[in-house]
Amino acid sequence: MSDFVIEEGLPYPLGAHWSGKGTNFAVFSANATKVEVCLFEENRETHRFELPEYTDQVFHGYIAGVGPGTFYGYRVYGPYQPDAGHRFNPNKLLLDPYARAHAGSLNWNPAVFGYKMETGDDTTFDERDSAPFMPKCVVVDPDFDWQAEAARQNVHWDETIVYETHVKGFTKKPPDVPENLRGTYAGFAAPQLIDHLTSLGVTSVELLPVHSFVNDDRLLKKSLVNYWGYNTIGFFAPDPRYASDVPNSLREFKEMVSKLHGAGLEVILDVVYNHTAEGNELGPTLSFKGIDNASYYRLLPDRRRYYINDTGTGNTVNLSHPRVIQMVMDSLRYWAGHMHIDGFRFDLGTILAREVYGFDEQSGFLKAMDQDPLLSTVKLIAEPWDCGPGGYQVGGFPPGWAEWNDKYRDTVRDYWRGEASPSALATRLLGSGDIFNRWGGRRSWASVNFITAHDGFTLNDWASYDDKHNEANGEGNHDGNSSNRSWNCGVEGPTDDQEIIALRERQKRNMLATLLLSQGTPMLLGGDEFGRTQQGNNNAYCQDSDISWFDWGMGEEAQKLLAFTKRVIQLRRDYPILRRSRFLTGAHDAQLDIRDVVWVNANGGEMTNGDWDSNWLKCFGVVLDGRARKTAIPRHGEDDSVLIILNSYEGPVNFKLPHTSAGLCWSLLLDTNVADGTSNTRFDFDSPYKVPGRSLQLFVGGGAGVALPTQWLSLPVARMERSEIRGFTANTVLDCASLHPGYEGIISSAPPPPNRDRAGGA
Fold it and tell me: What is the b/e burial string over 701-721, where b = at least 16 CB atoms within 10 angstroms of the residue's CB?
């Protein structure tokens, strides 16, 4: 290694890039005076080179002989003037913002702080060397044979079902995965776990953060860790803690992606570009703070010693700076292009669209994303809020983006615990057009519907606990949200009461069915498909333990719930009217003389203004017309029409099934009052159906027309040939024929009832 020779190199690309004979190093800093690259062997610094050139605010140099596997870091010189926003300290080894791999972990020693940490005064200057306590960057060989990978699936948004999960939690305890692979990328790619995902029917796996991150010192002191990973320090490096083969963590991650793609599954990453692990002025100096604090972070304009904290984590990444936007864009392109990632979910996404004056749907970042030829083709999902002023922006992102819809979560939870009316739920069932149908051309898939997520109760715990139980977090149960819109069904936590257990299981089925039968993009929290519990902990961010790990030893109830979930997902696939990308509104389509949605009450008639305004009405239905146009072209759809009945009342309700021109009967496909949801029952139109308390039913009536109460039919019935019955499934035709021998179908045309300006209308 004594033969290393340094040359000028190039200012691009940023980071450390191996040429086959040596490595080019390039790092941006607008305010530094000198940058050194340090090479290491077994945590011992062996060489130090000053980067010789400075071009367009980029320090750069090429070192012949440095190849893959070399550990390195930077030392950056410049003014230490906290009041001016500068915190340069060459005694601190710094991670390369563009490093493709990290090795080792952070040892929380006072030396990793740029100031004398013991004093609590960040204006002091610390001269201790932090290198022995820092993780190191690794020069990588970028080559990987993707030839064996199946072609990307390019799952259309209207077919997408997102499965949110954690690499370690999902893979830590399955008994049929080898011990050495549990908790790792390689374990996630195990055939048994991929089979679980594909048999479930989800299309897209959304992984909690896998960018290299740091464990908080305060958590380590309590024998806890930052389990979720929302504490990023490296935007280009997969975290090595999830690798079974740490020196080859990059390759292992790629192999995982390749195998998931081979099974037809998309991979979406939860990414955290809104803040870093360096915290506020009292935080450590690990990378960005020591490279160019004034450029990378938003600082208070009149007191540049301090950080703007719109994230609630101590600092906010400055996406108003062109080089910082470049870093984020380069990172996203790297993961989408080189790592073959299919989409991104942006944590605290509002931050990314902030300018100095606040949130802007035409911010520099959003404009850059919109025009990027690669990133404009992948799935983009925003968590559309932060804790800064004007931070709640659900519905505020531009066309092309999908957004987490917490209004959906809250309303569905409230409805099934008897606290929300049908009028509140109706628009949520139709993709929340009141929120997302305000931009030209946005689609219903823009609403990412969820009932649970990593942050909060699991579905099982939503039905089992009234209150959070976060004692294991060591914060006196003061952390986490106290407003969970949950209901324990009469007993807090586990119980042997069979009636309560049955009610909880039915409530879980109600929630899952509502999620998967709603318009929009459903997101399922991993483990909810079989009733995973976190023992009432609604903030398990620090629990790398049985609280967070999936228990794959499913009992009878878990297996039944899993079967139910699979059935509902399959129904969503089988009946396209349940996942239209075009917003369904209930408005009259004059060109086709139909309405895509009709809301019905228990009498079988259309919901009236009095019904919508009623505080006592708990049971209602909705018919989705399979003939509704799928595009702007005035052409009938050819899908089956469906009837969904939802009853949040505790007792049964006699419901008159509405008449429809889709056939001569309704076929009941799903009933949440049945453990696995299965049903194969047929009912004549206008016949009474006793809807069990707190339950949901899905009926199909075929694809020949919209469901309309009999009194709305005004034109003569005309016969048509069986071959003309568009959209019927074979089973539907046979079922109806068995009830009515000689049936060939009926069709009718009728004017719609008066327009409404209530839910489901405008």
Answer: bbbbbbbbbeebbeeeeeeee
SS3 call for 398: coil
Question: What element of type H or E holds 370?
Answer: helix 364-371
- The answer to whether 307 and 298 are in contact (CB under 8 A) is yes
562: Cβ–Cβ under 8 A, 6 or more apart, which residues? 200, 529, 530, 554
Phi, psi of 7 (to 5 degrees): -125, 180
CB 444 within 8 A of CB 430: yes
Instruction: Using the predicted structure, report yes or no on whether residue 212 has a pLDDT greater than 90.
Output: yes
Q: Which helix (H) or strand (E) holds 512?
A: helix 498-517
Q: Are 258 and 146 in contact (CB under 8 A)?
A: yes
pLDDT over 60 at 272, yes or no = yes
Q: Which helix (H) or strand (E) holds 654?
A: strand 653-656
Would residue 347 show up in a list of annotated catalytic residues for this protein?
yes
| HEC profile of 532-577 | CCCCCCCCHHHCCCCCCCCCCCCCHHHHHHHHHHHHHHHHHHHCHH
Q: Where are the alpha helices (DSSP H) in 388-432?
A: 406-416, 422-429
Q: Give CA angle at 220 (215, 225), nearest 5°.
A: 50
Nearest in space to 188 (alpha carbons), one of 213, 205, 211 = 205
Segment 545-594, tens digit of pLDDT: 999 999 999 999 999 999 999 999 999 999 999 999 999 999 999 999 89
Instruction: Let me know: does 238 contact 253? Beta carbons within 8 Å.
Output: yes
455-465 pLDDT per residue, tens: 999 999 999 99
- Per residue in 464-484, pLDDT (tens digit) is 999 999 999 999 999 999 999
Backbone φ, ψ for residue 240 (5° rounding): -70, -15
0.70 cut: is pTM over it?
A: yes
Cβ-based neighbour number of residue 94 at 10 Å: 26
Separation between Cα atoms, residue 648 and residue 733, nearest integer Å:
32
Decide if 159 is catalytic: no
Gap between the Cα atoms of 194 and 259, Å rounded: 8
Which residue among the candidates 266, 383, 606, 625 is catalytic per the annotation?
A: 383
The SS3 call for residue 411 is helix
Contact status, residue 101 vs residue 137, Cβ threshold 8 Å: yes
Contact criterion met (CB below 8 Å) for 579 and 207: no
What is the pLDDT at residue 662? 55
pLDDT in tens, 352-378: 999 989 999 889 999 999 999 999 999
Q: Which of 552, 542, 571 is nearest to 698 (CA)?
A: 571
Structure tokens at 188: 């996630």
- Which residue among 252, 281, 347, 596 is the active-site one? 347
Please check whether residue 737 is in contact with residue 743, taking contact to mean a CB–CB distance below 8 angstroms. yes
How far from chain centre, in Å, is Cα 501?
Answer: 30
Q: CA torsion angle for 242, 244, 247, 249 (degrees, to 10)?
A: -50
Chain position carrying tokens 């700076």: 321
